[in-house]
Amino acid sequence: MKTIRLIAEEHLTYVPHHVAEHLGLFERQGLAIEVNYDSGPGGSWLADVLAEGKADIARGGVWIPLMYRGRLEELRIFTQLCGFNTQVLIAREPYLNFQWSDLYEKKVLLPAGSTSQWMFLKGVLRENGIDLSRIQFIRDLDEATTTRLWRGGFTDFYLTYSPLADALLMEGFHLAADLSVVAGEVPWSVYYTTPRFLAGNRTELTSFVRALSEASEWIGAHTPEEIANLISPDFQTIPIPVLTAAVQRMRSHQTWSADMSVRREPFMRYQGMIAAYGLIDAPVAYNDIIDTISI
Predict the structure, then answer these.
(1) Residues of the chain with pLDDT > 70: what percent?
(2) How far apart are the C-alpha atoms of 197 and 104, rounded to whole Å?
(3) What is the chain's percent helix, strand, coil content, to nearest 5?
(4) For residue range 237-294, what is the model confidence (pLDDT) as tens digits?
(5) Which residues belong to CATH 3.40.190.10 in the chain?
(6) What is the mean pLDDT of the segment spanning 91-103?
(7) From CA 179, how far away is CA 243, in angstroms rounded?
């Protein structure tokens, strides 16, 4: 049994990993996955933990290995877990046909530390010709505070993830836009590692990706209720109806692809947004940082 140490952000968007764990798919591939969910500043601790040799692989956004490349660490992205940004823009009032221009002269609330979320939203708005100076964004407060403020009547829109988004919709707030639907494909969550670990453990990483692919196929063949019940021990603070609704949302939008590959066009598009934001000087060639594990 080969042990792989994973350092990871934790969001409900990573359902296939939880499914693979509960179905024993990693074990069937001869793997024991040790997961560390220790938090850090804005996701950047993931690459730091890899550099310190305290983990073998990391799960998070593509912007971290891109930003570190040529400056701090050379990292390689070897597979993709989420192919869409699953965030939801919640509105206080109903919109029958929401347009991005409906944000003009409004306040939009985002939690602090949401670097990739803000960077992507900003990029999408610019793609759609939106004048950001006409929208007031508030993104300096932690999520617990923003959620309480939202429920208390603060701001016109709130950008958040499931399951909080689904809970707020059940409370009577309104869906303005689901970014999985309106913002296009993007390599939102990936796994990456050091070139040395990738070179020395390609067989094991292939088994790892195969287990995730099998989990994604299982998700496609089962109901949201079955999926939610399977992974519920990992999300005990989330009521089953909310968990089910969140899984249904992400499953219906094909968030998880069974081939687990990082597609070139969405990757290059996202790099343009990352460069415009200033985290990288310019987009890099696909093969300079993507080393897809084929299964």
Answers:
(1) 96
(2) 48
(3) 45, 20, 35
(4) 899 999 999 899 888 888 888 788 999 999 999 999 999 999 999 999 999 999 988 7
(5) 2-84+186-289, 88-182
(6) 94
(7) 19
Name the fold adopted by 88-182: D-Maltodextrin-Binding Protein; domain 2 (3.40.190)
User: Dihedral of CA 33/34/38/40: which sign?
Assistant: negative
Segment (H or E) for 57: strand 57-60
Q: What is the pLDDT of residues 126-167, one digit of tens each?
A: 999 999 999 999 988 787 888 999 999 999 999 998 888 888
DSSP letter, residue 55: -
- The whole-angstrom separation of Cα 268 and Cα 273 is 9
Cis preceding-peptide flag for 241 (omega within 30 of 0): no
CB atoms under 10 Å from CB of 151, counted, come to 12
| CA distances, 34 to each of 38, 57, 187, 260 (Å) | 12, 10, 24, 21
Cβ atoms of 86 and 250 closer than 8 Å:
yes
How many Å apart are CA 23 and CA 210, to the nearest integer?
13
Could you confirm whether domain 2-84+186-289 is CATH 3.40.190.10?
Answer: yes
pLDDT tens column, 24-65: 999 999 999 988 776 555 556 777 788 888 889 999 889 989
